[in-house]
Amino acid sequence: MGCRDVHAATVLAFLSGTASVAGLLAAVLLPNWRQMRLYTFNKNERNVTVYTGLWIKCARVDGSRNCVIYDPQWYTAVDQLDLRVLQFALPLSMLTAVSALFLCLIGMCNTAFVSTVPNVKLAKCLVNSAGCHLVAGLLFLLACAICLTPSIWVIFYNNYLNRKYEPVFSFDISVFIAIASAGGLFFTSVLLFLWYCACKSLPSPFWQPLYSHPPSMHSYASQPYSARSRLSAMEIDIPVVTHAS
């Protein structure tokens, strides 16, 4: 199967990238980045757990699923530096990953519906599917770095809060979802880079390695033949037979 065909690697990369973006969206929306456990020694009262997200804060008493205190304006008054950074980093990572998915989709459609031989006049201007997959892989790698760095920082910042105040803080499930999504973005970029490296063995420019022309197609314009060259193929030595008298 040639590089122009839609490989299983590109399809798997697109599915992996889509799942990673969905995981990032869930991590952004869930109010489960940090828990603050408040204990009481009064037997007539119950312990309270404060769930802190990027946009909202919810306080629940033990045994209840309803929020005793619900703060939908938490995103405007975030007083924890790691969560404030994540408010900007995760949406930026999602935007970068969605752009990469769009490029990956363009590359897949190009391999499926574009003819094998490119238009001679547009051959030097085309951004073919291999170029799209290469840029998509770089964007997936960038999205992974933007997401992974502040997500891991939450773990260390949580330990800092426990040392500074009291050991009542713990990171929640959104941290694991974000880190797993970053791993999915990295896996997606590796798949696209492997696919690109497999196609780069073809004799072609760096940006356009997709079209695998036969040797005669590398020169798009053939040189005109001269009149002498056209006649040379017809010049056949015919022996002259003379009869002796």
TrEMBL record:
Keyword Transmembrane helix attributed: yes
Family: Belongs to the claudin family.
Transmembrane regions: 6-30, 88-114, 134-156, 168-196
UniProt source species: Trogon melanurus (Black-tailed trogon)
Keywords, comma-separated and alphabetical: Cell junction, Membrane, Tight junction, Transmembrane, Transmembrane helix
Membrane topology: Multi-pass membrane protein
Name the record gives this protein: CLD12 protein
Principal location class: other
Subcellular location as annotated: Cell junction, Tight junction; Membrane
Residues in coiled coil: none
Keyword GTP-binding: no
GO CC annotations, alphabetized: bicellular tight junction; plasma membrane
PANTHER family noted in UniProt: CLAUDIN-12
